[in-house]
Specification:
Elements (H helix, E strand, L loop, with lengths): L8 H77 L20
């Protein structure tokens, strides 16, 4: 390795410092780019599908609940309509009477 004379040493320090600074900036940029890449990959590969699936499940539950409520409402309306249209039976005061039956062998 050749020796550098002392006179030239101060002149080389700024150049070496600039090269180290440039390498440090490049290394930081590369790490940030890799970090952003993995962040975007995580968001598009995990977060977005989870959100979409959650929304679809909520929508499915909502439609199922609405259908169930509609069915219950229709049944209730039919039951009240049948009660209103059914003729009223005369009440019998024959609470003590009963029918005899014969045993079949």
């Amino acid at each position: 390795m050749p020796r550098i004379p002392r006179r030239q040493l101060p002149n080389l320090l700024p150049e070496i410092y600039c090269q180290c600074l440039t390498l440090r900036i490049m290394f930081r940029f590369i790490l940030q780019a890799i970090g952003i890449f993995f962040l975007i990959r995580f968001i598009t590969g995990f977060v977005i599908p989870v959100v979409r699936t959650t929304l679809q499940i909520r929508k499915g539950f909502k439609t199922a609940r609405e259908q169930m409520e509609e069915t219950a409402r229709r049944q209730h309306q039919q039951a009240t309509a049948e009660q209103q249209t059914a003729p009223k039976r005369p009440s019998s005061n024959d609470a003590g009477d009963y029918l005899d039956f014969e045993e079949v062998k």
